[in-house]
Amino acid sequence: MRTYFAILAIVAVAAADSLVRSPEADAPILKQDADVFPDKYQFSYETGNGISASESGVLKNVGREDEALEVQGGNQYTGPDGVVYKIVYVANENGYQPQGAHLPVPPPPQEIPEYILRSIEYNRLHAKPETQVA
Fold first, then answer.
1. Quick one: pLDDT band at residue 21, thresholds 50, 70, 90?
2. What's the Cα-to-Cα distance from 51 to each of 28, 74, 75, 99, 109, rounded to whole Å?
3. How many Å apart are CA 27 and CA 121, to the nearest integer?
C-alpha cells in the first residue's frame, strides 16, 4: 500500500510540474561568454526568448583597506505586456545605481523652509554643552 501512495505522489509531482512550468523555462541559450580573473571578470549571455545580460567588474584599490569591486552591466527582457525592458547599472562604493525608462525617478530635492533654518540656527546657538558622564 505504501508503494502505491509513493508512486501516486511521484506521478502527482510530475503532473504538477508540467502544468506549472513555464515554456520560458526551456528557452535555449543562444550565446554565452565569460572570463574570470583574480582582479576582474566579465560575462554575457543571450537566450532564445529575448533575455540578454552583460556585466563586467574590476577590483579597485587592490590590497588596501578600501579595496572594492566596481561593476557595470545591463540586461533586457520582453515583459508580458510586449514591452522591452532595459536596465543599465553601476554598482560600486556608492551602491547599486540602476537606470531604465520604466524605473521611477525620485522627485527633486526640496528647499528647507525658512522657519526650519531659523530653528536649526537657534538650536546651534543655544545648545547646552554636553556633560561628561564619569
1. low
2. 10, 11, 7, 17, 36
3. 62
